[in-house]
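Example for tutorial group B:
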């Protein structure tokens, strides 16, 4: 059974085989999580991703580190998100790619909950979609899924409650 946890903190400092995040089809997002990855790993992940263009909405791409970096994660799974697919489906793409690559631990940020134009869900809907997708993988070959919330204890509590009711 997969251990699922919700913590508050910096996603780049949580030990994991991969960090799952969303990025647009242009290969850049530059805000929030994307910016945090770039701060600890430079351009190593994004550089590989842009070489794979064109990127297509809903596509998952597993990118391994090419050198040592300051983050606690080893690789990144980018899910291409042009904001026109349900968030739950995108997270499932990322989790499936983690299983396909025989990863044992992943971290996922609270995707689509920040300030950004074009988001289709409310904050509560985005958090619920995240909890539902993670609960779906609760009996997978993944040993650990950690949802990491940056600086929002209310979101931590919401996700913990949502996961306890979906189990």
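The residue assignment follows.
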């Amino acid at each position: 059974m997969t251990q699922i946890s919700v913590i508050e903190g910096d996603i780049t400092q949580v030990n994991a085989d991969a960090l799952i995040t969303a990025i647009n089809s242009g290969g850049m997002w530059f805000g929030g999580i994307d910016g945090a990855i770039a701060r600890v790993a430079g351009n190593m992940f994004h550089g590989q991703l842009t070489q794979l263009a064109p990127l297509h909405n809903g596509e998952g791409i597993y990118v391994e580190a090419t050198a040592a970096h300051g983050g606690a994660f080893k690789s990144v799974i980018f899910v291409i998100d042009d904001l026109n697919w349900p968030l739950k489906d995108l997270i499932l793409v990322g989790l499936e790619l983690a299983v396909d690559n025989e990863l044992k631990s992943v971290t996922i940020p609270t995707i689509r909950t920040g300030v950004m134009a074009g988001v289709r869900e409310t904050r509560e809907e985005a958090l619920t979609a995240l909890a539902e997708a993670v609960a779906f993988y609760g009996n997978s070959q993944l040993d650990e899924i950690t949802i990491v919330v940056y600086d929002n204890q209310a979101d931590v509590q919401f996700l913990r409650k949502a996961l306890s009711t979906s189990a």
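The beta strands are 3-8, 16-23, 60-64, 73-80, 105-109, 144-149. Compare this with the pattern of hydrophobic and polar residues in the output above.
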